[in-house]
Amino acid sequence: xxxxxxxxxxxxxxxxxxxxxxxxxxxxxxxxxxxxxxxxxxxxxxxxxxxxxxxxxxxxxxxxxxxxxxxxxxxxxxxxxxxxxxxxxxxxxxxxxxxxxxxxxxxxxxxxxxxxxxxxxxxxxxxxxxxxxxxxxxxxxxxxxxxxxxxxxxxxxxxxxxxxxxxxxxxxxxxx
Length: 176
Ligand SMILES: CC(C)(COP(=O)(O)OP(=O)(O)OC[C@H]1O[C@@H](n2cnc3c(N)ncnc32)[C@H](O)[C@@H]1OP(=O)(O)O)[C@@H](O)C(=O)NCCC(=O)NCCS
Fold this sequence. Notes:
This protein is an alpha+beta fold and 176 residues long. The chain has a single domain, classed as Gcn5-related N-acetyltransferase (GNAT) (Aminopeptidase), CATH 3.40.630.30. It contains 4 helices and 8 strands; from the N terminus they run βααβββαβαβββ. Helix 1 (13-21) crosses helix 2 (37-46). It starts with a strand and ends with a strand. Bound molecules: coenzyme A (COA). The site of coenzyme A has 20 residues, from strand 4, helix 3 and helix 4.
C-alpha cells in the first residue's frame, strides 16, 4: 500500500476528522482523540493557529495518520503528538511520519526543541520516541508520566548531512 506523507492543507480537515471518528482507542492519550465528531472538530479547530503545523499520511483519499507540532510560548519550541489509525499500525508508518515531521520542524521551522508528555503505559509510543532521539526531561519521573524532549539542531542534524530525520516531506512510502 502506498502512503503519502505531507504537510496538511486546510481542505484536508474534514478527512482528518473522519479518521478520528473511527480511531480507536479514543480518549486514552491525555484525553485525546476526543470521542464525538463535534469534540473532534472543536479540538482540531483549536489547533489551527499560525504556530501549529500539521502533517498527514494518506492512502488514496483516506487520511490514516496525523502528527502535529504545536507552537508554545517560546518561538523555537513545539509540542508534538502523533496518531496512526489502528488499521495501519505497526507497519512503519508512525516512524516515517514522526521523522518527516521532525525533519520539517528542524529544517523549515528552525525549532531547537520538540517536547511531549506520555501519560500511562504506552510502550509502543515510548519506543518510537526513544528511537527518534527523545529523552526524558527529568530522569526521576514516574514511568506513567514521561516528559520527553528532543533537540533539533544537533551535530548529526545539520544541513544535508542529517542522519536522523531522514524523511523529507512530501514523500510516498510503501507499507505492507
Ligand atoms: C504510537 C503510534 C503512533 C505508532 O504508530 P505505528 O505506525 O504503529 O508505528 P511504527 O510501526 O512506525 O513503529 C512501531 C514501533 O513499536 C515497536 N513495538 C511494537 N509493539 C511494541 C511493544 N509492545 N512494546 C514496545 N515496542 C513495540 C515496533 O517494533 C516498532 O518499532 P521498530 O520500528 O523499532 O521496529 C500508534 O501506535 C498510535 O497511533 N497509537 C495510539 C496513539 C498514541 O499512542 N500516540 C502517541 C501519544 S500522543
